Amino acid sequence: MAQITAALVKQLREMTDSPMMECKKALVEADGDIEKAVDVLRKMGVAKAVKRSGRDTNEGTIAAYVSEDGKTGALLELTCETDFVGTNPKFTGFAMDLAKVVAENDPADVVALKACAMGEGTVESELTEMIHVIGENMKVARFQRLSVENGVLANYVHHNGKLADIVTFSFNNAETADNDEFKSFAHDVAMQVAAAAPVAARREDVDSAVVEHEKSIYMAQAADSGKPEAIQEKIAVGKLEKFYKENVLTEQESIKESGTTINELAAKVSKSAGDDVKVVSFVRFSFGE
Asked: What stretches of 76-156 show up as alpha helix (H) in DSSP?
């Protein structure tokens, strides 16, 4: 039996907003495994909100770059030591330049990125120079490149530079990219990803393990109702449908147009543009994740 310390109980309580005694019971049942304890609390219906406890990281910014033709893009997280530097235009501009290098060169990893040409030298030499000029240590924490053939990319960066995303859209006619209604729609969807934090763009893209995990939680909750098994299954399926509507981008209610889903807005834009506009996928970076 694992030792259930006060610190562990406190950590679980902060993650779930659950009562102290219930947290302790859950940890005992889970033999000290905090992730299993979260599931125990959820099955008990006690956990109010499981918080993602981000680790304490350095300061910095996230840059989102999309090429002029909308075909290639990249997200990049650049860290530094202080918030003062993290919001400095010279630092954030450098992060954007690095994201552009990623989009144009498609490096496999940070080592490959550092070897890419930049300015009069390489990314590594330019990064070293920035460290000397600004006087703080910096590093590329992560990046991801995106590209699309029949469609475009759209990006959104939260005002503090700590949250950014790029959404991939598909369509058939090249002229759609210049359609004003589509451009407004694309911007709003990218903003939706930042604000609503969906887990996937489409229902079929949700990790099957996540679906099974959620359904097991709902089945456990339904079992406590005392209703027949057939009814329990319907209850669980109903809750899973709600999960999809809350967590799948295309099924979420638009934050800009209440009562209308992203899929419904895509259909409106498709009709207006005379095309078949679809939200394909997205990548979302939250600083320090």
From this structure: 83-86, 89-105, 110-114, 123-134
In DSSP terms, 74 is beta-bridged to: 65, 145
Q: Which CATH architecture has domain 55-147?
A: 2-Layer Sandwich (3.30)
Please say whether the beta carbons of 116 and 101 come within 8 A: yes
Query: Encoding tokens for residue 66?
Result: 């999309």
Compute the half-sphere exposure of residue 21: CA atoms within 13 Å on the CB side of its CA.
0
Domain spans of the chain, in order of start: 6-44, 55-147
Contact criterion met (CB below 8 Å) for 27 and 8: yes
Q: Are the C-beta atoms of 34 and 48 separated by less than 8 Å?
A: no
Separation CA 83–CA 235 (nearest Å)? 47
Is pTM, for the whole model, over 0.90?
no
**From CA 249, how far away is CA 157, in angstroms rounded?**
17
- DSSP per residue, 18-71: --HHHHHHHHHHTTT-HHHHHHHHHHHT-------------EEEEEEEE-TTSS
User: d(Cα 184, Cα 230) in Å, to the nearest integer?
Assistant: 45
- What SS3 state is found at 280? strand
d(Cα 246, Cα 252) in Å, to the nearest integer?
Answer: 6
The whole-number pLDDT of residue 90 equals: 95
- Cα(256)–Cα(262) distance, integer angstroms: 10
Q: Which pair of structure tokens corresponds to residue 22?
A: 């219930």
SS3 state of residue 12: helix
May I ask the CATH class of domain 6-44?
mainly alpha
Question: In what helix (H) or strand (E) does residue 266 lie, and over which residues does it extend?
Answer: helix 262-273
pLDDT tens digits, 247-270? 999 999 999 999 999 999 999 999
What does DSSP assign to residue 288? T
Nearest alpha-carbon partner for 266 in 254, 258, 284, 283: 254
